[in-house]
Amino acid sequence: MTLAFAGSAAAQEATPPSVTLTAAQLFAYADAARDRADFPTAEAAYRALASNPDPELRTEARFRLAMMLADRQRRFADAAVLLRQILDEKPKAARVRLELARVQAFMGHVNSAERELRAAQASGLPPEVERMVRFYQSALSAAKPMGFSLEVALAPDSNINRATRSDTLGTIIGDFTLDQNAKARSGVGLDLHGTAWARHGLYKSATLVMRLSGSANVYRESDFNDFILSAQAGPEYRSGRDKIAFLVGPAWRWYGMQPYTTTISGSASWQHPLGKRAQLRVEGGIGHVTNRRNALQSGESFTLSASYDRAFSARFGGGVQVNASRDTAADPGYALASLGANAYLFREFGHTTATVSIGYSHLEADERLFLYPRRRMDNRFSANLSGTFRSLRIGPFAPLARLHWERNNSTIELYDYNRLGGELGITAAF
Fold it and tell me: Rounded to two decimals, what is the model's pTM?
């Protein structure tokens, strides 16, 4: 490798001399620049080494640069990208995965950090590294991060309003002809999902968590635009390796550019590790929902779920979830109870992470609505396939592609529908 150095003013007018350095000498040069806080020079040297065809030299350069960015410059997102690049090539590099978990925690991605720790343990660790894992697991509770995540995608959909394709609706007084807006409509929309959060330590085992989340599905025809905004805050406690959190706050939904529902809710969750590779999470919630369009649908909402997540290896994992919900309403015909289950698997293939999931849920209304001949009962099936392509990343973001299918069989024609859609956009790369 060659480096150019400028000398006197006269020399600067001529072509600067070049110096040939071995990889070891260039590492020493970069380390010296780092130690004297000349970070631009150190980064340029490390990045030159990171392009070396030798995978060991390339890995070492990326790792040293990532540590400098994270520990000296607080550039956590850039450091995480480099660490993920190493893991794409060397998925069993336990130290690298541990450092990625630490950086994720600094950025506020606590769940992602815990997933990386489980993946590291799934690959098998020597005793001294096991001690480091336990240290990082404890350190997660002491972090005071704040951060923001964003996903933006174009979303073609065969049924943007989850509506029936039937032309008529059967009732006790005959068949009604459905308006076009009440039938399935296809379209291409813009999907946006974002979350901002902050964590502030209260005392040794407690942290105040604050979170603001929002989503938007925007279409050319504004009648189908769907916006959701929620704010939550509450304490999170650590008890040994368990994590317990309580969150409360409001949520608002607008549909067709008009207010739809307002919700005040609270939730409690318990997260418990099961061995080194798995964790159990149980969560329950209660809320009051005010329906701005139909007061007969206003009532209380109750939810309960349990999920199990496991890392089978450093690059392969999955999980299952069972959930139940209960919605009361002023009219028993709108009061609903449901029970469902979902399962997912993810696998890393080089620079790509693929995820597949399937789900089923059964829903029943308390009573028959006066207009319909039968009580509402639904059986809903869903499947999703997605991929994140880090080799095409743009800064800390990477392209994503997602395909989803949904089928809802209902005794009420209005709720009986098929849906096939996709998304193509960008998301956080780690």
Answer: 0.70
Summarised one tens digit per residue, pLDDT across range 237-264 is 888 778 899 999 999 999 988 999 999 9
Question: Are 106 and 202 within one domain?
Answer: no
Whole-number Å distance between alpha carbons of 120 and 46: 26
Q: Which helix (H) or strand (E) is 41 found in, with range?
A: helix 39-50
Backbone angles phi, psi at 126, to 5 degrees: -70, 160
Q: Which of 113, 118, 103, 29 is nearest to 66 (CA)?
A: 103
Kindly report the number of other CB atoms within 10 A of residue 255's CB atom. Answer: 18
Helix (H) / strand (E) containing 198: strand 187-203
Token digits of residue 294: 């139909």
Tokens for 161?
A: 């309003």
Whole-angstrom distance, CA of residue 179 vs CA of residue 22: 75
Please identify, among 115, 142, 169, the residue that sits at the C-terminal boundary of a domain: 142
Q: In this predicted model, what pLDDT tens digit does every residue of 119-159 receive, in sequence order?
A: 766 665 555 555 555 555 555 544 546 677 788 999 888 88
Q: Are residues 80 and 134 in the same domain?
A: yes
Encoded amino acid at 313, one letter = S
**The residue to which tokens 């193509």 are assigned:** 424
**Contacts for 216 with CB less than 8 Å, ≥ 6 apart:** 190, 191, 192, 225, 226, 227, 228
Which letter does DSSP use for residue 143 in this model?
A: -
3-state secondary structure 1-22: CEEECCCCHHHHHCCCCEEECC
Domain hosting 159: range is: 146-428
User: In terms of domains, do 332 and 291 share one?
Assistant: yes
- Report the candidate in 95, 101, 108, 60 with the shortest Cα–Cα distance to residue 80: 101
Count Cβ neighbours within 10 Å for each residue of 129-167 and write b for 16 or more, e otherwise.
eeebbeebbeebbebebebebebbbebebbbbbebbebe
Task: Identify the sign of the CA torsion 135, 140, 145, 149.
Answer: positive
Last residue of a domain, one of 142, 169, 204: 142
Do residues 103 and 158 both lie within one domain? Answer: no
